[in-house]
């Protein structure tokens, strides 16, 4: 029988292969053009910063795949031919499949800025991006980063760790303002500036200027200012990596359209991870979720289906985590940048300006809707249970110490938060003696 072919060896594709192998001896082939072995993409920054070597980002020994009878092919797929159940490689070689899984991930957005093909222009997504940064960094005095999101802040931290001055062009009037409410976003603005990063809000890239050797020498902003630099980081979001599917007959939107079972419109072809797009978002989630843990979950779910137990993708309650330089961020449930008409937001910020909590709850029934945590670690199971059981905001406030990862250290903050909540919403018990 022809193999299950998985295009892409990121977290989604590799999780799928591992979980299929636990249940079946079916032949599996993973194809990737980026690197022969799976690595943790989120760890690339720590390689650049000297905290680990690249081989430390590979959680499996290189012989793991052979031992588990999973074939690895390093090649670029240029075409999918469903009518003959084949994929075509850039070499012209054709590989037959029984089932095909698209797990091709994302690619950095490039909005066609003039000069964006110059040497010294990079994203921060692929192993090749890390290699390029390593090559250019020794000759670089200043870098310009375009786009105010999570990848941009990681790249900024990487570059300043090498003593490179960083200018950050952020189109919005405040950092990550489409996701974070005003209080948290302003806190991150201040934190970025404290790290001596030249943050330019409400400023966009207009053009990249190259020197006579084709290497970046400056950028021009939409304000008409020219900024000298040797590296330009394009971190204005990512998009599904699906161009090679345009003539395949597979239904595409921004990503590969799939149903709840991660099936495309063509039999025996599936999509998972960053490249998959639900026909409609699940609950309040977006149709495309370029998040590490959802890719892993999709891989686990599809493995069930492909080994005889059809299983729908049900990702559960939304959560995410990140780091803004020295400030850790966690979010559970839904906290919108601008509250919905039915929402109330409670916001507490520590006097240090490095710790904050925002809680969203329903105005009418006071049910807990979500929480943003900055500089304070909370327990995922606690909030998963609170959301599943539709507990009230008052319950959450009363049990903050139990919610926290380090309750002894957190005690003083909990008392302060409870006191502020009681002042804003008098008449509700906000302490717990359990």
Order of strands, main sheet, comes to 3-2-1-7-19
Radius of gyration: 24 Å
Q: Describe the sheet with the most strands.
A: 5 strands, parallel
Q: What percentage of amino acids are in beta strands?
A: 25-35%
What's the tally of helices? 11
- Structural class by helix and strand composition: alpha/beta
- Tell me the helix content: 25-40%
Q: Find the count of extended strands (DSSP E, 2+ residues).
A: 25
Question: Ends: how far apart?
Answer: 59 Å
Unreliable residue runs: none
What general form does the structure show? globular
Q: If you average the pLDDT, what whole number results?
A: 95
How would you explain this protein's 3D organization?
With 434 residues, the chain is α/β, with parallel strands linked by helices. It has 11 helices and 25 strands. The protein is globular, with a radius of gyration of 24 Å.
């Amino acid at each position: 029988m022809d193999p299950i072919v998985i295009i892409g060896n990121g977290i989604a594709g590799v999780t799928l292969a591992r979980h299929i192998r636990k249940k079946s001896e079916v032949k599996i082939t993973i194809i990737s053009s980026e690197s022969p072995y799976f690595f943790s993409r989120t760890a690339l920054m720590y390689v650049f910063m000297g905290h680990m070597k690249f081989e430390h980002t590979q959680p499996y020994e290189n012989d793991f795949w052979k031992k588990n009878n999973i074939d690895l092919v390093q090649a670029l797929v240029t075409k999918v031919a469903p009518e003959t159940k084949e994929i075509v490689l850039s070499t012209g070689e054709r590989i037959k499949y029984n089932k095909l899984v698209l797990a091709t991930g994302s690619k950095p957005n490039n909005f066609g800025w003039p000069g964006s093909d110059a040497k010294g222009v990079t994203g921060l997504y692929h192993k090749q991006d890390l290699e390029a940064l390593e090559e250019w960094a020794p000759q670089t005095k200043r870098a310009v980063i375009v786009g105010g999101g999570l990848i941009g802040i990681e790249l900024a931290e990487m570059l300043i760790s090498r003593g490179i001055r960083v200018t950050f062009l952020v189109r919005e009037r405040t950092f990550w303002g489409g996701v974070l409410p005003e209080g948290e976003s302003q806190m991150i603005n201040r934190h970025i500036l404290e790290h001596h990063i030249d943050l330019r809000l409400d400023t966009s890239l207009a053009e990249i200027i190259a020197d006579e050797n084709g290497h970046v020498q400056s950028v021009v902003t939409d304000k008409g200012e020219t900024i000298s630099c040797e590296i330009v980081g394009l971190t204005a979001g990512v998009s599904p990596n699906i161009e090679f599917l345009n003539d395949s007959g597979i239904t595409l939107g921004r990503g590969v359209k799939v149903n709840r079972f991660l099936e495309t419109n063509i039999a025996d072809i599936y999509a998972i991870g960053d490249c998959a797009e639900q026909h409609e978002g699940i609950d309040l989630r977006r149709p495309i979720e370029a998040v590490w843990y959802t890719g892993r979950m999709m891989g686990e779910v599809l493995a069930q289906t492909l080994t005889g137990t059809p299983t729908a993708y049900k990702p559960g309650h939304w959560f995410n985590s990140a780091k803004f330089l020295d400030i850790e961020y966690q979010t559970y449930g839904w906290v919108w940048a601008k509250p919905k008409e039915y929402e109330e937001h409670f916001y507490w910020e520590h006097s240090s300006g490095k710790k904050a909590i925002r809680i969203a709850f329903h105005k009418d029934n006071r049910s807990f809707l979500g929480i943003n945590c900055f500089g304070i670690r909370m327990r995922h199971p606690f909030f998963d249970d609170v959301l599943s059981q539709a507990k009230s905001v008052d319950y959450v406030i009363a049990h903050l110490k139990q919610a926290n990862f380090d309750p002894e250290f957190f005690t003083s903050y909990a008392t302060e938060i409870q006191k502020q909540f009681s002042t804003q919403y008098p008449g509700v018990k906000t302490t717990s003696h359990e």
